[in-house]
Amino acid sequence: MSSYKKTIYDSFVATLSDGYEVNYYTHYYNAVICREIIEANIGAYDCYVVMPHFEAKNSETEIAAVFENIPTGKLLLLDRKYAIPGKRYMAVFQDFSQNFFDGLLSMKESVTRFKELHILFPHYSSHPREVINGLQKFSRKYGMRYTII
Q: What is residue 112's three-state secondary structure?
């Protein structure tokens, strides 16, 4: 678990009242593994909390299948927004696009000294692709070129 995700996990657990039990499973950014973990535990929990960060190679169908067997009202998505057609669920998430834009904006004086911005973002990355939208928005607003490597 990354230090970032550990901070989220620890904060989440700290807010729970006494009497709650939390079991932690990792899906290693793989939607198929995540689905298997959930299916093996359907009915075992009052709530299923998932951080839906998956590898780019996982298809939309594989990702949607992760959530299909979780009963309505028992799913909480943390950290990353994900649209699940036809499913009602709770969510607490970041706006990765706006956060990336705001980060660049906070360093605007330094960043705009460069002619071009480069971001290393491998196609297989499990990082949110929305950060690219934040880069594009910043680049358009301040007339900068950018390259995605």
A: coil
Residue 116 parent element (H or E): strand 116-119
pLDDT band at 59 (very low <50, low <70, confident <90, very high): confident
pLDDT at 32: 92
pLDDT of residue 86: 83
The model's pTM is 0.79
Query: What's the CA gap between 126 and 64, in Å, rounded?
Result: 16
- DSSP secondary structure letters along 30-93: -HHHHHHHHHHTTTS-S-EEE-----TTS-HHHHHHHHTTSPTT-EEEEEE----TT---EEEE
Residues 66/52, Cβ–Cβ less than 8 Å? yes
Nearest CA among 58, 3, 67 for reference residue 38: 67
Q: Are 39 and 69 in contact (CB under 8 A)?
A: yes
At residue 129, φ and ψ (nearest 5 deg) are: -70, -15
The domains of the chain are located at: 3-94, 96-148
pLDDT reading at 135 higher than 90: yes
**What does DSSP assign to residue 110?**
H
